[in-house]
Amino acid sequence: MRFGVVIFPGSNCEQDVIRATHFLGFDSEYIWHGDTDISGFDAIVLPGGFSYGDYIRTGAVARFSPVMSEVVRFAEKGGPVLGICNGFQILCEAHLLPGALLRNQGLKFICKSVNLRVEENTCQWLDQPAGTILEIPINHNEGNYYCDAQTLERLDANGQVVLRYVEADGSTADGGSAPNGALDDIAGVCNERGNVFGLMPHPERVVDPLTGGTDGQPFFTTIVRALAEVSG
Amino acid sequence: MARYEIYVTYKPGIFDPPGATAERALVNLGYQGVNEVKIGKYIRLDADADFDTVSEMCQKLLANPVIEDYRIEVVEGA
User: Fold this and answer.
1) pLDDT (average), residues A122-148
2) Which of these, A86, A97, A82, lies nearest to A224 by C-alpha position?
3) Could you give the residue numbers annotated as active site of A?
4) Closest-approach residue (CA) in chain B for A58
5) Predicted confidence (pLDDT) per residue in A68-94, tens digit
6) Hey, what CATH class is B2-75 in?
């Protein structure tokens, strides 16, 4: 089992993902965005950062990096793909996930710890029971999730909304609990098959108690366990 | 060579925070009758490409059809 972490020009969280996976005892290696061979990897992570300076739109240019056609093919075959922050934005631009990430409603870059509620979902990347509250940091300027009403209905019906922003006690504040204005407080969504998952929070930053918590661990351990079961 | 001017704006119903901020600021400056401000992008493109190809460029890269509309104007005599 080996994670591949893609580096785009302007990515800046790839080291955090590599360190997080190593901390948990998993094998992982960088993939340069110009590479077109990802055959040595069992799961792909698109890390956070500012790929291509966020020019045109966040993720809009990275989506056309040479490695992305391979990532799309990998995902279509059912390979697990995780997009964190800018990685989530890239997955939306690549149409591997529905919707788009707009600029934060308050026009401010937000960097803080938030509370997230795990929803009933079909995501292969997270085995935490629905209702679990996780505390994970966010760090973004464009995390305001949007999709049209029809898509939202479909996401809810299929269990594709994986995480919602909530208050510390798990409740939703009047007017919503998303710090960035995200539609229906959505913090993370997966595709219908559950193998592609994107989220704005940074689980790779909370795997080591020394740096603030362990709530990010399941985002890496779940998929390792799932893949181990498959290969039996 | 043709010159195209492309305007990219949010689809109706999508909240435009910079537009809303500009709107409030204009009202605060005392301008009466400011109803709505929308802020979008302007792209000038000089290219040996026909209109359909430029449309394709917009759909693929310059705009995101999930959240944005675009309008292409051909500039005569540029």
Assistant:
1) 97
2) A82
3) 85, 202, 204
4) B64
5) 999 999 999 999 999 999 999 999 999
6) alpha beta
